[in-house]
Design goal:
single chain, 258 residues, alpha+beta, 13-stranded antiparallel β-sheet, two-stranded antiparallel sheet, Oxalate:formate antiporter
Length: 258
């Protein structure tokens, strides 16, 4: 059964495949991805979708979303699409220059959620290939520059933590604590664990007067997110393999590993 409740979206599973330049994830949604990386996305070529306000490209026979309509796509129920797959591109002229072979590779990406060749095209100048089934449930994203992934992950974790951890002021009203950005250098130290497959749990984080501790478990390589979540529910009863710790006084992050 799919864990589509608030608890489910407050945990993030990440499995990093550096060789093939993609990350398989659970718990990170399109809106969070674009909130972090919108400055790097110009237009989107839709491979699998149900968006009703795209433009039609006659050469590829595919629809695309120009930059000025990206916010509308973000607000749409992309989870409800089922399959939601796209690549970014810079100019429509690039779409019109795609060869039949390149179009076949793009269609294969959307249909099989896998690549025939490295899925980065000079004509499109794409930085990403975004392949999702039930967006946020099963996402496979290719990155031309893997540093974009670490930037997005740090932004998303801080955003999720900010939403989940509120504090009461003197009047008893809840307020959000503004957290310092999570340094990419710290996330890079987690690379070895990410290659194995990790779960970072905002839901199970512990807040005290002085700190916030976010537990991390090494789960392994999962393609079925039901199985992944079941393993998490077993492991959460024990000690985590690592923790991201936020020092409220110093407003600094650090990584603790066992």
């Amino acid at each position: 059964m799919k864990k589509n409740n608030s608890n489910g979206r407050a945990v993030v599973y990440v499995h990093l495949n550096e060789t093939k330049q993609y990350v398989l994830s659970y718990g990170i949604e399109f809106a969070e991805f674009t909130e972090s990386l919108s400055d790097l996305i110009n237009q989107i070529l839709l491979l699998k979708h149900h968006f009703d306000d795209g433009d039609f490209n006659r050469h590829s026979l595919l629809e695309f979303v120009p930059n000025e309509r990206l916010k509308k796509l973000v607000k749409d129920d992309v989870y409800g699409y089922g399959d939601f797959c796209w690549v970014d591109f810079e100019e429509e002229e690039g779409l019109n220059e795609l060869t039949g072979q390149e179009l076949a590779e793009l269609l294969y990406l959307g249909h099989m959620k896998d690549h025939l060749k490295p899925p980065f095209y000079q004509k499109l100048r794409n930085r990403f290939v975004y392949l999702a089934h039930d967006d946020g449930w099963w996402n496979k994203i290719y990155y031309r520059n893997m540093m974009d992934f670490y930037r997005m992950l740090g932004d998303t974790l801080v955003s999720k933590l900010t939403e989940s951890k509120t504090e009461k002021n003197l009047l008893g009203l809840k307020k959000k604590r503004v957290l310092s950005p999570l340094p990419i250098e710290l996330l890079l130290k987690m690379k070895t664990m990410m290659r194995e497959g990790i779960l970072i749990s905002i839901y199970d984080s512990v807040q005290s007067r002085t700190s916030i501790e976010v537990p991390i478990w090494i789960l392994g390589d999962f393609d079925n997110m039901d199985d992944m979540y079941e393993d998490y529910e077993k492991l959460v009863k024990g000690s985590p393999d690592a923790k991201l710790i936020y020092d409220k006084k110093k407003t600094e992050w650090k990584l603790y590993t066992n």
